[in-house]
Write a structure and sequence with these properties.
This protein is an alpha+beta fold. The chain folds into 3 domains: about 60 residues; about 90 residues; about 90 residues, no CATH class. It contains 7 helices and 12 strands.
Length: about 325
Amino acid sequence: MAWILIVFLILLGGLIAPFGDLLGTKIGKARFSILKLRPKKTATIVTIITGGFISSISIGLLILVSEEFRQRLFVDIPLLQKTLDESKKALLPLQEERKKLEEKINIKEKELNQLKSNINEFRRGNVVIKRGQTLFIAQITSNPNIKLDLRKIYNSADKYVQEIVIPSKKEIKNILLWRSSNVSEIESVTSKGGDWIILIKSATNVLKGDNFVFVYSELLQNKTIVRKGEVITSEILESKDFDYKNINSKIKNLIRKTRDKIKLRGSIVNEITTKGDFIKKIRDSLNVNQNNKYQIEVVSLRDSKTADQIIVELNIMKL
């Protein structure tokens, strides 16, 4: 059926085409004019119309004779268009997701480039302050003049940081840059009462010679961490631990546990100061009797608050 239709259309086109050409030629010779056009242009228009007529007849015959053609034209094509529209809608969330992913990749690339830059600066030795480094620690107690006290702290921090970043510059100026919201938050909290510790930290790596340092602050409650005479941590020492290597290992472990414990309580100091020759004290106790268990205690020698130095001694007791 399809082959018959194709042959028919070819024959039909072959018959109508000469007719259209002949009609155009006749009109040209007769010098017939449409809409006041020149006869030559009129003949061209007639030929075009004849070609369109051939196409229209061909499509009409396909619609009438071929069920498959009607199916494709009136059912499949609209269906494909609808599917295409739905596919475009389905792609929108994916395009949004892709856009977000590209933004994340760009951010990561910027961070990587910044990291590479920082590494290069570190290698050149130009970085004098690292990001997140604590630059200044101050204690403040709430009072009616809290804003004035805070201003004094900021000025002291400014002077201290300037000596690190631009020590050759004699003129004192404001080198620290703060977020106004950060300053307002500190004033609001400290004005409500209590004792506080202010930590001023660098927000970025700072190179020697930079004119400004971006900073932010952390506010900690200044509370008692340990009291004088308090046993902070302790460790049991048995006969198998009486050699020097094991004793030394036990003491190091005990000091580490003590440091971890005061950190959990809120202390910001990184090291513990020990007083007395505790190694000699422990050895002397063990030399007297090695058949007993002993307990080593880390005892605080003073009251210490959040930013205060932790000073301890080690005592050994026979169990």
